[in-house]
């Protein structure tokens, strides 16, 4: 079967080898899913690639790994296919190559430009608010009125939702639009929440030695649940504002503040851990040509979390204005770049897990 990219063709070759061997079938979800097929379309391979959590266990267990002439490197090849799938399904098509090549520079640049624009606009129209906004009872809105903030960030958030939905729909269509039931979604949610397959088959994840010292599962948990807590803080603050008429900034002991602090800590600890883990990760296990996209996404999460915590600590000082501009620039950039970076890997992986749960549920049981 012909494939659209060299990475997909290599993945097809490796799946043929692995289907003949099946030594690694108990390590993760990829190999049981692979065993249901004898030939693989591009959609099948993209499904398997997004099902792979890149734990690296199969690379260390494989007797055909380099320097063997078969050169079997499943995690590295599927990482390449997976990264290329983010660009392939991105909407609109014109944005596909940008963040893959220059993700870090674009993300940081957009954040700084947005922050400088906000500061420049305030300096031109109300210069006293630049370093004196903390003296205003409605300090958060001295730099940018509430309605303007809602309009700008609401539009960016809506665009993100549309673009991510279009990419997810294209991915789902490519993997065959399986009829997934409620129990399949429940299983996929549980697997995703636990990062069930980022554990090397129960032994932990390996890197360049025989010790399961890879802590990416822990750092992912900090990051993911930190993000959810920040989302909960924003949602609760919205209810406070529109339902009860309680306006920001909120006291330290308030619900939005406590959720935001906990989430911000997660978005600092998790991304720092992920960046350190990425520095020590074997190059053979990662995708080539997409480092900017991956690092840019992690840095944006870190910047959002760190600037949010700084606002909480220094929000009653003259630094409120510059910090708020930086935080708003980071959040806006995060929304705008989400459909074109590593953020979508969580959604595509969830969809792959839901299809896998469905496939395992309806798979024929082998006779004893």
From TrEMBL:
Domain of life (superkingdom): Bacteria
Organism from which the protein derives: Qingshengfaniella alkalisoli
Transmembrane segments: 103-124, 144-165, 222-243, 255-275, 295-314, 320-341
Listed SUPFAM superfamilies: Respiratory nitrate reductase 1 gamma chain (SSF103501)
Keyword vocabulary terms for this entry: Membrane, Plasmid, Transmembrane, Transmembrane helix
Protein name in the entry: Tricarballylate utilization 4Fe-4S protein TcuB
